[in-house]
Amino acid sequence: MYTGPNPFDELQQAGMQALFEFVRAQITALERLSALNIDVVRSASNDGADYAKALLVGTGTPELSRLSAALAVPALDRSIAYSLSVCELGSQAQGEMARLVNAQASGFGRGVAAGLDRLVQLAPQGSGAVVKAVKSVIDTANSAFDGLTEFGVKTSEVAQAKFAVARIADADAKLGKLPTQTGNGSRNNKNRKKAV
Known about the structure:
By secondary structure, the protein is mainly α. The protein is 87% helix and 0% strand. The longest helix is centred in the middle third of the chain and has 62 residues, at 61-122.
């Protein structure tokens, strides 16, 4: 009779540890998103209060139009920054989840391989070929999973890089560093006027 340590206990403990890591990663992502939402609400409230104060002091319709236009630009900037931040947070969370899933899957694969090695010792003669076939299938599945996980991580990294570029472009636009249009735009307008 076999009286060694129960391999299922080890797998169960590893599974529970992985579950706790998943929960921690999700809570961290939720904390970041909550902090972002609080900052956006605070900023919008401050801008709204400033707008309300300016309306009380405003003298007429032209002043009201100027204030409305002045309020629209920061609101648009905030919404763009918020969207980029949410996408970036989602990409970071996805990358962390991919890393955790990869670690859990590789640990599970090692545990199954070790269990199969123990099973070979207890199995009847001639079952080695079946065990080798099962190990081959597991290795192939692990290889495919590793490729898929690597693709997911690289996709996450590319997305984060694109969000960083978008943030820089947004910051440059706010500083007035947008490239000016060059070309034949004014000439085309003159040609259109002549044609009419």
